[in-house]
Write a structure and sequence with these properties.
The protein is α+β, with helices and mostly antiparallel strands and 146 residues long. It has a domain at 19-78 and 98-136: Sandwich (Immunoglobulin-like), CATH 2.60.40. Helix content is 19%, strand content 31%. A hairpin with a 5-residue loop joins β2 and β3 (46-51). It is elongated.
């Protein structure tokens, strides 16, 4: 099963790398990753979307870390801690269990032409959407011909 995830990563890595986003594999478990979409709007704004079903904005932390001069968008998703009573009730109902380890931490390298100081995270209906605009210095400059 681990090999299948490596094959899927290998298929999508070139696209993600071309967009400038690179998943920091050192921080991921590579068992079941958070479902993620990366795309670019016509104006150059980049959108990162992650499926986080059942989570609210209080369960998610979005931050930017700088490592060796490179910006990383870091997303952490908290799991709810069950009380002993909730665990016991769940165990009584359980017929079968297959543990799948999910990644609750995601780190993406952010292209240098994006304005990380003005990124906007938003959670709605189990979808985390992070909008990252193009930095003013990265926008083309148009000059008037005299």
């Amino acid at each position: 099963m681990e090999n299948m995830y490596n094959i899927i990563d290998a298929l999508f890595y070139p696209f993600i790398q071309r967009q400038g986003f690179v998943h920091d594999s050192e921080l991921a478990t590579h068992k079941v990753s958070l479902p993620i979409n990366l795309y670019e709007e016509e104006d150059g704004t980049n959108i990162v979307e992650l499926a986080i079903p059942g989570k609210t904005k209080e369960d998610v932390t979005v931050s930017v870390e700088v490592k060796d001069g490179v910006n990383y968008l870091v997303i952490d998703v908290k799991e709810k801690e069950l009380t002993e009573e909730e665990k016991a009730a769940a165990d009584k109902r359980k017929v079968f269990e297959k543990l799948i380890k999910t990644t609750k931490h995601c780190s993406l390298r952010v292209p240098s032409n994006l304005d990380i100081d003005n990124l906007k995270p938003h959670v709605e209906n189990g979808l985390l959407r992070i909008t990252i605009p193009v930095a003013e210095t990265a926008k083309p400059k148009i000059f008037t011909i005299e």
